Amino acid sequence: MKKSYPDIVALILRLGFGGAMLVHGVQKAEKLLGGFDKIKFADPIGIGEPATLVLAIFTELISAIALVLGYYTRIAAALLGVTMIVAMFIVHGGDSWAKKELAALYLIGYLASFLMGGGKYSITK
Questions:
Q1: I want to staple 110 with a disulfide (CB 3.0 to 4.6 A). Which of 7, 77, 98, 101 is the partner?
Q2: Over 90: is that where the pLDDT of 20 sits?
Q3: What's the CA dihedral at 64, 75, 85, 69 to 10 degrees?
Q4: Which of 69-83, 84-98, 103-117 shows the lowest mean pLDDT across its residues?
């Protein structure tokens, strides 16, 4: 008899992709703690470096924590997915595939989490 483990798969996706993104969020938060006057950060959507950094921190830190916990999984995955689309097509738009690959892999994980939802091992479905 074939068994299916969609709730375990959802948990693995959330922990893996959310946990890995936390590292990037923490690194960006450390930049912000250094002060706005020292910020050198991309401004791909034209809202200014500090505002872009704050948005990136929100998605890569707060949304990643929400994803790990399974708290509004689909919303967290969507926000992270949009961030990866910006990274892939705008920030690294002119770069080689090697520079885009990590964002593409994260995007796949966030798309899968968005489609699956949090599963039964999450705070909210």
A1: 77
A2: yes
A3: 20
A4: 84-98
| pLDDT over threshold 70, residue 38 | no
Q: Is 58 left (phi over 0), alpha (psi -120 to 50) or beta?
A: alpha
44 to 1, 68, 98, 116: CA distances (angstroms): 51, 27, 19, 30
Structural domain spans, the chain: 6-116
One DSSP character per residue, the chain reads: -----HHHHHHHHIIIIIHHHHHHHHHHHHHHHT-GGG-----TTSS-HHHHHHHHHIIIIIIHHHHHHTSSHHHHHHHHHHHHHHIIIIITTTS-HHHHHHHHHHHHHHHHHHHH-S-TTSS--
Higher pLDDT, 115 or 36: 115
- Exposed, middle or buried, 94 (CB in 10 Å: 0-12/13-18/19+)? exposed
What tokens does 96 get?
């080689």
